Amino acid sequence: MSKDFAQIAADVESSLNLLSGAVPDVMAGFLALGHASHGEGSLSPKTKELIAFGIAIAVHCDGCISYHAKAVHEAGATRAEVAEMIAVAIHMGGGPSVVYGGEALKAFDTFAQG
Question: What's the pLDDT score for residue 98?
């Protein structure tokens, strides 16, 4: 069964908005942490998104994979860069990362193909 990664990413965004209304102080802190950790620094925002995408694979989170597939595409990553990152995630995560790595590449392709 094929997953609708665009819908999953939209659902994650919706959940973030829902939580922002329910626990605004917590979500403001979480979003501030995200902005502070993903901004330009010694590592580029694209590199940071590739790291986040790799962690999403390692922790087996469909919502995280979808969200960061979109973000890494928007940050300008190429399919080749994503594939290399998936290879590292597979090395670090073993068999389950192979399964989620394939899903991650499908998710990236969803956003790269429009």
Answer: 87
How many Å separate Cα 26 from the centre of its chain?
Answer: 21
| Residues 4 and 11: beta-carbon distance below 8 Å | no
- Give the structural domain span for 97: 5-112
Q: Which two tokens stand for residue 57?
A: 């694979």
- Sequence-distant (6+) residues with CB within 8 A of 30 are none
* Token pair belonging to 91: 């090395």
Whether residue 54 has pLDDT greater than 90: yes
Instruction: Give the three-state DSSP class for 44.
Output: coil
Q: What is the pLDDT of residue 114?
A: 78
Sequence-distant (6+) residues with CB within 8 A of 29 are: none
